[in-house]
Amino acid sequence: MTDPVFPDLKHQSVFITGGGSGIGAALTEAFLRQGAKVAFCQRSDATPFCDAMEKATGNRPLFLPCDIARTDQLQLTLSTAAKANGPITVLVNNAANDRRHETLATDPAFWDWSMAVNLRSYFFACQAVIPGMQAAGGGSIVNFSSISFMMADKGYAAYIAANAGIVGLTRTLAREFGPDRIRVNAIAPGWVLTERQKEHWVTPEGLAAHLSRQCLPDPIQPGDMAGAVLFLASNASRVMTSQTLILDGGYISA
């Protein structure tokens, strides 16, 4: 599958949280192929991934190690990326952790950690890049949520609550900074078969049951998110903001 080409993304300064694995890795590659200047963060070493991307695309991403639950680290990382690549005009808040947990066994420390990763980091990443976008005359923020909060699902209440919060955050920032031509949109994926999902939760029976509820019969792959993110980042969507795109193969509507 070939991603669409958006010429205005060439040389744009793009930052992706969690950009070295799963959905994030697919997004990093997609933006590199557009000719964008891509920086990304994650906790684990991504040097081999950067080497592979440079070989595959001729465009090397900037990897900056960071624990997004540490707001001070995240702010410094975004500042470093902006100094290296220019003011960030495309921010993709992608990193998340859907660790399962029992509601009655969840303590305040776990709740606070989950919110720090899955919601607080989104807010403070946006806060950090918005002044640069204002100075540049506009920008695009894409926040990854999830259909989990639309499903009345169970087993990870903190994560689900955070993803509902991401949609609310997206809408209020779109309203507040629309006058600066900063667009803020969200994407709510269905069950994307990343390596993490395959390792922890995918079973033949569970996947078959899930696919039976999708309108489309095919499993969703990380690369299936790229086209929509590129569209939201580009001027092709210049009048689109405060929206949530559901990319779930029709699961919610089924």
UniProtKB/TrEMBL annotation:
EC number(s) recorded for this UniProt protein: 1.1.1.-
Matching PANTHER family: 3-OXOACYL-[ACYL-CARRIER-PROTEIN] REDUCTASE, SHORT-CHAIN DEHYDROGENASES/REDUCTASES FAMILY MEMBER
Keyword Oxidoreductase: yes
Keywords: Oxidoreductase
UniProt protein name: SDR family NAD(P)-dependent oxidoreductase
Species of origin: Tabrizicola soli
Gene3D superfamilies documented for this protein: NAD(P)-binding Rossmann-like Domain
GO molecular function: oxidoreductase activity
Family per record: Belongs to the short-chain dehydrogenases/reductases (SDR) family.
Pfam family, one: adh_short_C2
Group of enzyme by EC: oxidoreductase
Domain (Ketoreductase): residue spans on this chain: 12-191
